[in-house]
Structure formats: C-alpha cells, structure tokens
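Hello Y.,

Per our agreement to keep a running log of every chain we model this quarter, I'm adding this entry. I've kept the format consistent with earlier entries: sequence first, then predicted structure.
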Amino acid sequence: MRYHELRKKEIDNIKELLLENYGFVMPNSWKLYYLGKCKVWVLKEEFFNLPLEKFNVETMGFYLCHYERDIFRLSIQGAQIVGKKASKNVLDISLKDAWELIRGFDIDKETGLNATYIILKSPIGIIGVGKNHKVKVLCQIKKNRRIRNLN
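Predicted structure for the entry above:
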C-alpha cells in the first residue's frame, strides 16, 4: 500500500482539530503519514532515520484517524491515546452502554457535547469513538471488531 508524509498544512490542520475537538496537544515527536486514501498513521521519532520504503509503516506506528476535508474521526487506537489526555468531548458511559456499543448497537444517551465524533470512556477504559447526535450515540466500531456473543 502506498503512503506519504503529510504536508505541513495538513499536519497543522490535524493538530488544530485535536486541540479544538479534544483539548489534546499533539507531541512534536510524531510524524504523520497517509496510508491509502484517508488513513493517517503516526510514527514515533525512533523510526525517522530508517529507510521507510523498505518497511511497512503499519507495523511501526499506529492508526490515528480518518481525515478528509470535512471529516475527522479518531480510530480506536487514536481514541485510546488521545483520550488519556483529552479535556474535551469525552463521554463517560456505563458498562452496560459499553457492552451495547461493542456489540454494534447505538445507545440512547444525552451527551451535552458539541463535537461530531466523541471519545467514549467506560469504567474499564476507552473503547473508541461514537458519532454524537445529542440524544443518541451512534456506534462507530467496525463490524469486524464487534463482539456478537461470548459463547
């Protein structure tokens, strides 16, 4: 799969979106790459001097977000990393609600938040992002990551 480093303007946009939406300041030690069409991956400083064309960026970094002109949605990994230090648009949910989301269902919950995509935090940890509809949170967990039953 083809990848390339983001331009300065795109990096600045992502930094601004992270700060504006989640109150998260992106570390300068992160290098951002597009992998495919809209997936943004993060590489840490340790890998900057390696010839990246010989390596798979997916194995050296983590998937941060889906980024297009008007869409900015954190991945599960991105939500877990950003959510640890996020000061805005984090919704605390119960274990019951977390279970519903992990199974692929939307939850009825008044959010009181303004962002389109919000970080979902349960008592056991951050489970990802949901699409905010003020009185409902839409599940954004991919079908192949959902749990249907435990049997």
